[in-house]
Amino acid sequence: MSPGGLAHGGSEDFWGHVFWDQDTWMFPSILMFHPDLANTLLSSRKRIHQVAKMAAYKAGYSGAKFPWEAAFSGEEVSPSEDCANYEIHISGDIALATQQYYHMTKKHDFVNISLDIADFWVSRLIYDSQTGLQYINEVMGPDEYHFPVNNSAYTNAIAKNSIEFAQQLSKDIPGLRHSHSQSYSHYHQSIWIPYDPELNFNPEFTGYRLGTKVKQADTVMIQYPLMMVHPKSIAQNNLNFYQSNISAKGPAMTWSIFAINWLELNNQVKADIAFRRSYANAHGPFLVWTENADQSGAVNFHTAIGGFLQSLIFGYGGFRIKLNWLEFNPSLLADTLLINFIGINYQNATLDYQVTKSQLLVKLTAVESSKITVYLEDSNQKRLTLKVGDRIVLKRQKVLISTELHQQM
């Protein structure tokens, strides 16, 4: 999916090219309800997997290096030489999508892509013998105002995540053999994420000065969607520091990330402000989303729509896709009485959720096979077995959904 939909012959629709927008912004919400369509999106990456491997080889690296802008051929087609050369976080973005798909479905369709992306990052790392840390130099993060930079916080974090996921796959899948499977742990543990101990925040890159304007959400994405463990104080400082330095000309989806992350920190007031701020990019009479708040850029901007949906599903819904369960920790937008999430599909089980100010209702509506057992664990770690048609009513709280597949004897 291209940010502007099908190509109409001009740059305002990005020529129909596919960017990180598909994997980072559009994919997660589609995955939650329609894993079959999510498979279709990732299959567009699988189709050009061999081209990405050749691109890595030509650049002197291992694994697979995906293009910043892709079209039918799978070759790099970006008109920006700088983005093509430096915005390599795209490969990590694709790996994150494969990781989310794997956790939500337990299917192995895209495992080889995940492993090859991890190998690319391993070959791209630079080891500093004095510090014992691994660096990634000469890149461009999501903030396209600054490049090339060394140790982009987001780029290093998503490389770390890619390698860690590859290590997890090597543990999960019996018989999986891969060239770096024994050393993945060493690499992901030693990748440096820039940190300023004096100001207690993550600089966007080596040499970033607090107060410098940035284009869009970047470093704050370490918290969500990467879900890297952060002390609350660092996460809060990141949000405060960068929120005050976002360019007024930045794209719409930025505020969705701030809303989601403020909700995770239980700051409903700041979350609601960020959520409502994203509406500046939705224009009447039909609330069509544009890339920029002044109505410039792409019209019917799918990336903004994807960000908005994530602020509802992963923000106010509080959904988090974890290794062994689906977490649901809801809250309500101010002046909202209830919210429904209908048809969440987790590991071949379909569930409906309803949230009010005081209650949470969970209903299992279907399972693909009688061999699947679905469990709900409440905040007191009480585990319930769900049956199709069951309506579980609880005090509003965090719950975990998990499944177990029973093999026939």
What characteristics describe this protein?
12 helices, four-stranded antiparallel beta sheet, 409 residues, 16% strand, 13 strands, alpha+beta, globular, 36% helix
How is this fold's topology laid out?
Elements: H1 20-33, H2 35-46, H3 49-58, H4 81-86, H5 89-105, H6 111-124, E1 126-128, E2 133-135, H7 153-172, H8 184-190, H9 232-243, H10 254-264, H11 268-277, E3 282-283, E4 288-289, H12 302-316, E5 319-321, E6 326-328, E7 338-346, E8 349-356, E9 359-367, E10 372-377, E11 383-386, E12 391-395, E13 399-405
Antiparallel strand pairs: 1-2, 3-4, 5-6, 6-13, 7-8, 8-9, 9-12, 10-11, 10-13
Can you describe this structure?
The protein has helices at residues 20-33, 35-46, 49-58, 81-86, 89-105, 111-124, 153-172, 184-190, 232-243, 254-264, 268-277, 302-316; strands at residues 126-128, 133-135, 282-283, 288-289, 319-321, 326-328, 338-346, 349-356, 359-367, 372-377, 383-386, 391-395, 399-405. The protein is α+β, with helices and mostly antiparallel strands. The strands form four sheets. Strands 5-6-13-10-11 form a five-stranded antiparallel sheet. It has a four-stranded antiparallel sheet with strand order 7-8-9-12. A two-stranded antiparallel ribbon has the order 1-2. The chain is globular, with a radius of gyration of 21 Å. The termini are far apart.
Q: How many DSSP E strands?
A: 13
Cα separation of the termini? 43 Å
Shape: globular
Order of helices and strands: HHHHHHEEHHHHHEEHEEEEEEEEE
> How large a portion of the residues is in β-strands, by DSSP E?
15-25%
> How much is the average pLDDT?
94
Number of helical stretches of at least 4 residues: 12
Biggest pleated sheet: 5 strands, antiparallel
Radius of gyration from the alpha-carbon trace, in angstroms = 21 Å
The proportion of residues forming helix, as a percent range, comes to 25-40%
| Overall SS class | alpha+beta
Low-confidence stretches: none
Strand adjacency order, main sheet: 5-6-13-10-11
